[in-house]
Amino acid sequence: MIVMSAGPTTVSREKLDYMMKNSTNTDIDKNYITIHRETEALISKLVNTNAKSFVMLGEAILGLEAACSSLIEEGDRVLVIHNGFFGYGFKYFIEMYGGIPVMLEMDYTKGLNKDILDEYLKKDSDFKFATLVHCETPSGIMNPIDEICSLLQDYGVLSIVDAVSSIGGEFIDFDKFKIDVLIGGSQKCLSVPSGLTLITISETAESIVLNRKTPIKSYYCNFKNHLEKSGSREFPYTMNDSLIYGLNISLKNILDTDYVSIHKEFGERVRNAFIKSGLKLYPKSHFSNTVTTVLLPDNITDVEIVDRMVQKGVFISPGVGHLEGKTIRIGHMGDNLDENMIIETLKALDEVFLEKNIVLECSLTESFMKYNVFF
Amino acid sequence: MIVMSAGPTTVSREKLDYMMKNSTNTDIDKNYITIHRETEALISKLVNTNAKSFVMLGEAILGLEAACSSLIEEGDRVLVIHNGFFGYGFKYFIEMYGGIPVMLEMDYTKGLNKDILDEYLKKDSDFKFATLVHCETPSGIMNPIDEICSLLQDYGVLSIVDAVSSIGGEFIDFDKFKIDVLIGGSQKCLSVPSGLTLITISETAESIVLNRKTPIKSYYCNFKNHLEKSGSREFPYTMNDSLIYGLNISLKNILDTDYVSIHKEFGERVRNAFIKSGLKLYPKSHFSNTVTTVLLPDNITDVEIVDRMVQKGVFISPGVGHLEGKTIRIGHMGDNLDENMIIETLKALDEVFLEKNIVLECSLTESFMKYNVFF
Amino acid sequence: MIVMSAGPTTVSREKLDYMMKNSTNTDIDKNYITIHRETEALISKLVNTNAKSFVMLGEAILGLEAACSSLIEEGDRVLVIHNGFFGYGFKYFIEMYGGIPVMLEMDYTKGLNKDILDEYLKKDSDFKFATLVHCETPSGIMNPIDEICSLLQDYGVLSIVDAVSSIGGEFIDFDKFKIDVLIGGSQKCLSVPSGLTLITISETAESIVLNRKTPIKSYYCNFKNHLEKSGSREFPYTMNDSLIYGLNISLKNILDTDYVSIHKEFGERVRNAFIKSGLKLYPKSHFSNTVTTVLLPDNITDVEIVDRMVQKGVFISPGVGHLEGKTIRIGHMGDNLDENMIIETLKALDEVFLEKNIVLECSLTESFMKYNVFF
Amino acid sequence: MIVMSAGPTTVSREKLDYMMKNSTNTDIDKNYITIHRETEALISKLVNTNAKSFVMLGEAILGLEAACSSLIEEGDRVLVIHNGFFGYGFKYFIEMYGGIPVMLEMDYTKGLNKDILDEYLKKDSDFKFATLVHCETPSGIMNPIDEICSLLQDYGVLSIVDAVSSIGGEFIDFDKFKIDVLIGGSQKCLSVPSGLTLITISETAESIVLNRKTPIKSYYCNFKNHLEKSGSREFPYTMNDSLIYGLNISLKNILDTDYVSIHKEFGERVRNAFIKSGLKLYPKSHFSNTVTTVLLPDNITDVEIVDRMVQKGVFISPGVGHLEGKTIRIGHMGDNLDENMIIETLKALDEVFLEKNIVLECSLTESFMKYNVFF
Fold this sequence. Notes:
The structure is a homotetramer of 375-residue chains. The first copy, chain A, is α/β, with parallel strands linked by helices. Helix content of chain A is 41%, strand content 16%. Chain A has 2 domains: 13-255, 3-Layer(aba) Sandwich (Aspartate Aminotransferase, domain 2); 259-370, Aspartate Aminotransferase, domain 1. The first copy, chain A, is built from 13 helices and 15 strands. In chain A, the strands form 4 sheets. Chain A has a 7-stranded mixed sheet with strand order 2-10-9-8-5-3-4, sandwiched between helices. Chain A has a 4-stranded antiparallel sheet with strand order 11-12-15-14, covered by helices on one side. The longest helix of chain A is centred in the C-terminal third of the chain and has 18 residues, at 259-276. Chain A is globular. Chains in contact: A-B, A-C, A-D, B-C, B-D, C-D. At the A-B interface, helix 1, helix 3, helix 4 and helix 9 of A face helix 1, helix 3, helix 4 and helix 9 of B.
């Protein structure tokens, strides 16, 4: 099967093989601990900072929740800047931990707008922190977090950024962008199986976590447990060696390449193919270079296409949230970025549209391949 | 390296190999979903029940916390029956989620005592539920959960049992024992890498979770998300295929063997070796058949021994909690149960004691091997 | 290519992927043996029995021959009840192994008739066993094996049933139907590549095999070799892991669905399409829900149609035996049961008939699609 | 897991990937038929002949039986020349099909001796054919089939040669050696999963099969069915595409290399390692370059070593027949021929012997590696 979904992404055979060493005792094995700590340093390196990074054992959503649980104390006001499904979702985590979410909705078809935020903050900037999403995977929008986080800092508001489907695919400068908490996941651009959450945290945010008035209301969703053991030979619980080995080699390989340009090139080529074919992309601007969300004609649903694609040997993703039923999504990130695999995917899509009597203005496959010529 | 620690345990090469398939999309792949649901049914089968089981993606401690978060509402009184480190630890989870932990301490060197509990409950049984631990890994004690949980039910108190280091090694009859929530982990007797929490839940407990007055204060530590999707083709978040494949084959292999007798035999032989040597076991009764905790002479620490053992190629576990520094632990469970590996471990221990000038009354290795003869 | 032939059927991409693990040593690998034995238990489950099942490495015809070689001793009289190509074919296997085939021919255009058999057996029932076919793939007839096998048992005659193209598509209750030997194949309704023969055997038949006066005259076509190792960790020869993995997941997925109803629905819809079009089906009654055999007009041959269909990307089957040249066959079973694939097939057939100047009363595709509406 | 057993051997990932195409209809797909016929021609090419080759769907033992069933008629005398387990085994197949096996036993620790055969044939050469084995996998002996078959032809006796574990590893010239029937298997030197039997047949033998007085007493074990369809677009039963694709690419790759020299080199190096270590090889001469059989000291069994090797991640083979319990076997053939894999295997063996207190004169690993230097 070709895995071209918006996550989990393909994990290459070589990486799977590398991950599968003999089992060890992660609590005692010195070599494991060395590699684990190195992996954390590589995460920081990937986002161009010397700030601390650590890894939690759980799906990426664990990190989103843990950021809220670790920073919020009863009654804290939090600004939820949202233009998509995951951006909105922070609301629930904030409420769970006694925070007061203040919702700032922006246009769901575009990237976050700095000016609107500026206007807003002029009137009200009394927030402990703000939450936002780098890449909204459901809509395929990449938000300009550099502008937004910098502006937030100007107003003294910390920023928590969900970079689950951008880290390792899009350029992130943790320091310059003025990010305070950055949350990543293993199964998107990093192409490691699901099960790891990556956290990078600023000194300011760390200090808030370590100096709370009240204890954090969770052990598993808890940054403090990790921060306190940072750099030591201990972990808050037993870690999983094969996932860490996978993340480690993945980060090293990514850092050896010009991964930002590669994602940019493939993102443009995939979008071009859909646009040329006459199909509409969901976003009006700020297209993500890791995920493309395509609007479907009225007479067909996402599930019909996704199921037919499975029969043709390709996993792509259906719509999510308010886009359920109406969109399909291609993940062009991490180990999915293989010219042959993308061509196979587009060929299969061309066939499915034909079968479903949806006439395209030109073949997706050909548009994708031609674009390369003029690149 | 030989892994003979009290968890994570050895994962056999064959199992690691079996786990390593091509990566898939766990949200869409029909075959993955079939195997995932089958795995849940196998968990129920292992604990002899038709009650629902499900799997959470995270270290076993996630299950302990999620049980508390899912069942407790503000102000609920919970009885914490403890005779060890993990039994005591439930206190913190209960407090985090607004419950009132009422501590019932018993002798830390023996199994839980039914009569003491009966006396206690006669005076006060107004508890939503009680928490207890099946096998206390730090002390090597196996608690008689059948007696305790049945008694609790007589008083109308639900039971939450931490069976992390007993499931798959000790006999558990979920229905007959009157357990309401049973929590297991992948990295102990099941010998799958760390990263999965196993939950089995009674109808009564499920009904409480599904009919709460207030929402559960966590998304990741939350039974409801899993119960609502039970048996469906969806999960609350992206799952990890290789861990589930590993758990699946592990459960099948365990169910094919008389695993209770095997653990009993090895447990007795390991304990016999230490007793014959003149070393003292920590427990006075209720010895666990999965973990043995050995008291050390005053002139040596656990870390000295554990570190020297590592140099000889064997991982064993140091002490935990109030036994830190004073005890070492051997995990004789799951894939650790290999005569050769145990002999190698005891040989290395014989050598270490000799080097450290601790004179044993007889060789651990020989006692272990001789015992077999008279078995 | 779309595979809609009467076998081998489509093997879904997901299943092919699931089958492809790293190679192993099937003689030594414990996990392989677990899955192999589980697969045998699943076969028994599929045919609703606790009787033993086992798998032979070879095309399904191996099972037909091995049933005869294993049960027959020199001079045994065997009743060959036939209303089709494969039913008749048992004659040859019986003769090869020294048996005396007694031929009972019935109407080739209908299902086997219980009353005729009853009349026959009243006069002569001195047979060691009788052979019959569940689904005659050449003619598209599903025989009422429940009535026939029960009647045979009343006369003390064992039954050997060729269920190669019905197992996994049609309801079979091995015990209630009073079957003694049931033979299945991997490449029909189970949609696993060709290469496995599935055998389920009653205690009576097993006892005959194990207590023969003379040895079985073949090693490869031999039930005894398999029965003697049943449930053990050994096989009569080196097995093929990927086929067994494929059969395993296939059986699980089938057992999770109402596969009988699904085959019934598709069978009716396909037949309806041909009937509405004015084309004649070969059978007059007892239509199979797994294969449809369509009579062709005089001015065209099966090969002409099959070859043209291949050019259009669809594999269907030509006629076999006395129906060679005169019929085409659609296999609507296993992974072939996909609405899209059937529509593609009928569309192509509509086109081919048009090209060949064969005027249909209405479009096959439309009849197929409309029928659904009134279902 | 490292597969270094005497069959099944390793199947490389690349080959597995190549084998896994979309499923097809092997009866109709023209491309499949082309590749299938090409594969048969490649088999003939591998054994340096223009004689016909064909492939049967079943484990290699199918070919041994089918050779006997196809050539023997009631009362035919057959010379069974044996110096090992499989050589002796032909007796049973001959008896099953009504032949009279005449046993010629030679020294089991050496290769077949031409002079002894000559003496024998001088007295009695009235045999329809003789059977013999090229490589006796249980004992690790490679018989000089060139000398033996030529001599047989001088006396007008046809030869049937079991080359299951030599074809693709040892030089075979079908014509010059004067072989009449050569039988190979997929899962040894060709490193394709188990399930295919390869047959090459001389014109003389073919003529005997096609001109029998009585029909062959089996359909599945039957050369005639294959010979009659040879080169046509039909097969006696539905074939398995992925196995044939695997065999095809495997043969092409082998023919591109100097596979005889490679097997010779690795065979010598492995034997050298065992000899230097002081362990005894079973054969006194005629060492096989594909399998090495090592005699064990009295105080240890093959199963103890094989089981311990599994724990260390390596599959090797135990003894077979009269060598059961007393020998272990390394298969150095096909995709097993990887320097790293052999070193890993010998390292693990060095460790196991150490654990079992069996003192070697020098390390197997080192001897293996050093030998290379002086090569």
